[in-house]
Design brief:
Blueprint lengths: L3 H6 L6 E6 L3 H12 L4 E4 L15 E2 L3 H5 L3 H17 L4 E10 L2 H18 L8 E3 L1 H7 L10 E10 L1 H14 L3 E3 L2 E9 L2 E9 L5 E11 L5 H8 L7 E12 L7 E5 L8 E6 L2 E5 L3 E3 L10 H14 L11 E10 L14 E5 L5 E5 L5 H16 L32 H9 L6 H8 L2 H4 L1 H19 L3 H16 L10
Parallel strand pairs: 1-2, 1-10, 2-7, 4-12, 10-18
Antiparallel strand pairs: 3-6, 4-6, 5-6, 8-9, 9-10, 11-14, 11-15, 11-16, 12-13, 13-14, 17-18
Helix pairs in contact: 2-7, 2-10, 11-14, 14-15
Amino acid sequence: MRTREQLFSELTRQPWDVVIIGGGATGLGSAVDAASRGFRTLLIEQSDFCKATSSRSTKLIHGGVRYLKQGNVSLVRESLHERGLLLRNAPGLVKPLEFVIPTFSLPERWFYGFGLKAYDLLAGKLGMTASKMLSTADVQRRVNTIRADRLSGGVSYYDAQFDDARLTIAMVSCVENLGGTALNYAKVTSLCKKDGRVSGVVVQDVETQQQYEVAAKSVINATGIFTDSLREMDDASSSPILEVSQGTHIVVDRSFLPGDTAIIIPSTDDGRVVFIIPWHGSVVIGTTDVPMPEPVLDPIPRDDEIEFLLHHATRYLNRKVTVADIRSCFSGLRPLVKAKGTSATSQLSRDHHVITSSSGMVTVTGGKWTTYRRMALDAVNAAIKSGGLENRPSATEGMKLSGNLQDEPNAPQSVDSITNDFVRKAIHEESARTVEDVLSRRCRLLLLDARAALSVAPAVAKIMAQELQFGPDWEEQQLKQFSALAETYLPRGQFAE
């Protein structure tokens, strides 16, 4: 793998075919797509890869049962197709997961049973194990911690689960293997224009503050929740197109859901679904849907969101889930495209949108993790047209994502398994630059157990300072920053307990 210094030295040597701004799922997916077509491809990320929305999902690759209920059949069909491709192309990171919808009346069981048969049919040739209706005893065998009172049975169906940050890091490796360049901690400070057309970007190395003027035939805005900021940089008169919504998750001990089957709560007090899923030896409960006034890199779970999740989990489990049981909690922000006549963000479409501005900049936004490849395909197609590039076909539909995927499920998720070698690999092979990069995204310890992540942070900081040749001041500053961040991963007042 090329060093950071080598990557920056190559920025200004010749024009890039495609420059992509934003290193989340959509941006990296676009970089993989563009590089797969043989285009000279550069991706720029202002922080770490998948720092924001892409590492804070519900960890599901799914068609979206609730979108089917809303009548968005085309989105569900597209999502199920992409789910099938991901199961085939990233087998070490995306795997089948059984879900149970508990029901409390016979009509309810038939309603969900018939609905999920339609879900099966929409998946077509890339479908998974067929859904089926379950008796009360069947549900209790699959989920032995479910509340039995009033339970009348349920419905079983399959979707897929994944590790969002690890899949994103695999995509970084894929970009590099295809001859592209992906840079984190590199910020676009301005757009370059010639005759009214976008002709490149000015990139600042966040660590050294050095700036580089980078020429590009086409530029893609894949900045997620920051989409409108870049659109305004391109055209100060542009109107905002996004509504930002916060989704919060809480993580508790595996004893609350000890098996390998997840629960879906299909109807909550605010009209959306909540999942209770096993993940990396813990249980993730989420998500909420709260409108946010503006995007931020590190959103903080709100007390009312946490109470909402505790309330609904306790309603379905035979053991009360309390604030004291929370090992970590995290929030992600969704970039939802505005719709006239809709005020609730839970009702906004998860369809994606591709827009080409008058200057030729392509913006891709909206969508969801499951459909990132299709979003990337559409974005690069638009960039080809805007930049006058050769119309070459995408190769991503059958492409195996690079990286040692079969070993990824064994990536360290506990204090004892975070070795010196793991930290060095994160630095030299996976572009980690901070303690947070290592403990939140190269492994998932911060999301799984915030206190445990804090306990190992000093050892990680020491190794990183040595490997990156940074001094003790950097090490001290990193620990201060990580400590402050880790406190936000537990409900207020719980961190010191």
